[in-house]
Specification:
With 197 residues, the chain is mostly helical. The protein is built from nine helices and no strands. The termini are far apart.
């Protein structure tokens, strides 16, 4: 009995990992396909540059392929992949920091929800807030930016985000608190209140 294209065989992730660890490139590619979009998104949110995010995604997948045999399954595969992506993004940020002082954030990296009334004034307010957020996030240290992106933008739980960042929960919470306070100070309480109203 043959399978049709409309009824593909779904291979469980743990089986794909086992096959990839044994050197099956196709299994690794299938595993990477499951996570590639979110890995790209987190890199884009950390870096604010589509080209750099694509480079980081490629480097992340290359490093994951090289290290798949050492993956022991103590962490979930997405946590392992995200940790690699975050580390690669942080390396890119450090290289960029050495080249120039200010790091821009892509316009779409931080989304501000639209209010129910979408008049010209509210559109202008949202645009101002979006720009202020871009500037504020770009001024965060790499560890604080990572914490903010993982927890507040990507929506990971504190436990998941701290595992991805490779630090303990208490240290992660401290970085997240610092990031939130710094963004609030840079953007201003008035702008944050205006966006909620």
């Amino acid at each position: 009995m043959s399978r049709t294209a409309s009824n593909p065989v779904v291979i469980p992730e743990h089986e794909l990992i086992g096959r990839a660890r044994a050197g099956d490139v196709g299994a690794f590619e299938a595993l990477a396909d499951v996570h590639a979009d979110r890995l790209y998104t987190v890199a884009l949110r950390l870096l604010g540059d589509r080209g750099e995010a694509e480079d980081v995604l490629q480097e992340t997948l290359l490093r994951a392929w090289r290290g798949i045999r050492r993956f022991e399954g103590r962490a979930m595969v997405f946590t392992w992949l995200y940790r690699i992506a975050v580390n690669e993004s942080n390396r890119a940020l450090e290289r960029r920091k050495r080249r120039r002082a200010n790091v821009p954030v892509d316009e779409q990296a931080v989304a501000v929800p639209a209010p129910s009334r979408d008049g010209p004034a509210s559109h202008a307010e949202r645009q101002e807030l979006r720009e202020a957020l871009h500037v504020a996030i770009s001024q965060l240290s790499v560890p604080c930016r990572t914490a903010l992106v993982l927890r507040d933008i990507e929506g990971f739980s504190t436990r998941e985000a701290s595992e991805i960042a490779g630090i303990g929960e208490a240290a992660f919470k401290s970085r997240l608190h610092q990031a939130r306070m710094r963004v609030r100070a840079l953007v201003g309480d008035a702008a944050l209140v205006a966006s909620a109203g």
